[in-house]
Amino acid sequence: MALYIRDDEVDVLAKQVQKVISAPSKTEAVRIALQHELERAREAVPLRERIRRLQEEVKALGPYDRDLDLKEYMDEMWGDI
Questions:
Q1: Buried/exposed 41-71: b ≥16 CB within 10 Å, e otherwise
Q2: Is residue 78 part of a domain?
């Protein structure tokens, strides 16, 4: 079945993709672009999972020291510089 693009903007985009990837036709360019988009979507990590991983990383750092005086710490680290 042939691919017919009725939207002028989509046609321009298809031609640009065809040119950039040196595809033999617009149809091939669209096929490759759609395959890449499917792969990207399948590999995307859901937001909930990304947040869970970040929370685990923060938890692994250990408890927050509320008594830490960052200015005092930095002054001590820099010494008399």
A1: eeeeeeeeeeeeeeeeeeeeeeeeeeeeeee
A2: no
